[in-house]
Write the structure tokens for this entry.
Amino acid sequence: MNRALELAERAVRAADGDEADASVHVERSGFARFADSAVHQPTLITDESVTVRVVRDGRVGCATTNRTDDDGLAAAAARAGEAADSSPVDPGFPGLQEPAPPPDAEGFDEPTAALTPEEQAESAATAIAAAPELGLYGYYTSAVTELAVASTTGHAVAQAITDASVLALAASDEASGYAEATSWRAGDLDPAAVAREAAEKAARTQRADTVEASTYRAVLEPYAISELLFYFGFTSLNALALLEGRSYLSGRLGERLFHPDFTLWDDGLDPRGYPKAFDLEGVPKQRVTIVEEGVARDVVWDRRTAKQADDGHVSTGHGLSAPAQGFGPIPFNLAMAGGDAASVDELAERVGDGIYVTRLHYLGVVDPREGIITGMTRDGTFLVQGGKVTKPLVNLRFTTSFPALAAGLLGLTKEVTLVNRSDFYDERYPYGTLVPAVATEAFTIVGTGSGPGL
Amino acid sequence: MYARPVERLADHAIDAAIAAGAGYADARVVQRRAQHVSTKNGEVDTVSDAETQGVGVRVLVDGAWGFAGDPRMSEEGARDAALRAVAFARASALRARRRVELAPLPAASGGFSAPLERDPVDVPLEEKIALCLKAEEGMRRPEVTITEAMVRAMREHRVFRSSEGARIAQRFVECGGGIDALAVSDEGRVQNRSYPSAHGGSSGQAGWEYVLGLGLDREAPRVGEEAAALLTADLCPAGVTTIVVDAEQMLLQVHESVGHPTELDRVYGTEAAYAGTSFLKPNDVGSLRYGSEHMNITADPTTPVGLGTFGWDDEGAPARRQPVVEGGVLTGYLASRETSALIGRELGGSMRADNWSRMPLVRMTNLHLEPGAGTLEDLLADVDDGLYLCTNKSWSIDDKRLNFQFGTQVAWEIKKGKLGRMLRDPTYTGVTPEFWGRLDAVAGTEAWELHGLTNCGKGQPGQHAHVSHGTAPARFRDVQVGVRQ
């Protein structure tokens, strides 16, 4: 039996209440982090985390533990019961998930799960060796994660997933370039190719120029559009934000808000992403059409927001585990439709004159209701002149409207790329976006920063 | 002395690592329990109670680091972590470009626990829920559609042993709380106000008396009123003007534009691919002009109630107050034993790990803007035309910690030394040393406040640090404000 499911079922058995469920994370990961072309923070983590939720007379409490012997699980179940007893009745509690068979999902790769620390370090070394002319900074990581949810309703789901990523910043004092790759199959990754892409990009960034603050036409590589999309998704494509009026889509569903080529969905089952069969409440994953040819259609839902809406919505399988549900449902598997451009060079042709952005840094949502996001470009910002990517630019501060960017599309590459969005805080839970590179007529620069490089 | 079981686990891990070939090893055994209670619109939103425990083993093999964490509190778990750390270090050492050297450090022995009156973890959940619900009540207004209140409590025991003989046991107890009001107009305009800080309130290393001292219910009516008033406030205009920044926003200003760039690992590039580097260079100490003569920054892991207060850091270096900026000149860095050896100065004392499963990194402890003189009113009095900016709303800063843009929840006009009308959606931007160069006054001790935040992110895999900042309102001249797309 899946270890996570065994723990979940033991935790449920330990609980004393009208109803109970348990969600479990089991992680075994290795992280070969490197800097200045040497592995310097190699980290191996094994952990098991069990969250028990107990319902007593309509009161709900939860507790989490990584003590997974019988005493530890019993103690967690008792603390969850005490939390329930201490709470008033929760009128928004939607009840526990009834038995529902999870859809078939890929996402587990035995060779990835079997990678040893020595092999993880070796992959990092392969990346480093491929970029000898510059210092290489980044990581190679892989993990196997088991997820499970079990409930007194008889619901029981489990899945083992794998993930692997390589990230490379090739840099000197005056130049820097960036690349990354990720997959649930480590065999899909070519650490040397990622390092070379970063080094080749870095070689073009010396003697960077500046530009005036203005709204520019721009090409955004998948790394950049992925991060903007995820921040927009976290604050606006979330049913709780929609219901509370904080989302850009609040009151705007059904309207044509974006360019007709902008189609966006969330699909946790897509094998090109990080496939998962169910969310952290155990609800089967559903594909959700969010924007269809520029028209806003829906957001993602969990069980609590579906009940709150009381308009026929059901959970789409985007719930977090019980202690984190205050954030609302999260679109962990966003995907944008590609277009007809063969390459980023073709996107530059469509831009004509503007800027080219490889990667963003430290985003902040200035106004979630209007979808305005600020941040910096870095590690590969260039001028586009006469349809060609030309001279390098310093890092630029943007404060831009994501809806305006998506309304002003000039083109999308045919190819879409999975971009990892996890920074690996807390428990391992791989997620990312499937995105093309995009060209837009509206990317607003409000200032300049330092040059490329360290 | 007879070692307790937890200490024996750490010793066992170190013995296993050294036997496997490590030249240096340390082990941390951490047992943590954390509670979070939040209410929203008069109902309980979250009641959670989490515990985690495990052993983290860090080793040097042939001059290369390795780290492994294991949740099993057993000799088998400790030994496995040690052997895995050694294996990972050995694999990493094969292509190391330099040997890691550690600055000398006398082996410490002792214990630490901050004083407290009432352990916040032991406060009944009913009491925590009642406090939140009461605080929420005061924020309610017709325009305020969402009211939220939260409290947190944490208790942690941390044992540290090293192959050099360090034997340290520390207990950390934290708690905190905060309230937020979100107002939405009929036209869909959204505004919010928070107290005592945005993004999770404020925490301290203290007993439950800290939470009671925050006065959440006392401040709730003001928070609700201001959130409602922001709906009809005018947009903050754009321009270059004098700003007075409140103590809460100043903590973020210090954190982002002084704390992170003075972390010596960033200066040496080890965070380059993620959090970024620093505009500072190792030899800038003693010469770099960081700001005006009014700028004095101190790292102080001895500050009472500070979240970064400890007896020893996570590699056994003792807590020590150190100046970082004096009279506007850079005079120190936040450092580890490794980076202290690189720079050739005795620094250290800033290595901290988020839990047992993460490797220690150079982190802020308690980083303060030292007080100046006078009151907030004194700062305002010398402003003919400007803005008073309060409570962080958004933040972003570049990878070298130079170009920043911050938004606050609210601003008030300052006209001829007095506060005027309320303004919504204020932002300001600048470049770190230029901005700090425009500092012309910091309020005095009576206006100095200690805030604690629990969401400082760094490292891969990611780590959260709990840090505190003591700040007072400060005045800056000729600052660009009102930046929107």
Q: What stands out?
A: The first strand of chain B starts at residue 24 and ends at 40.
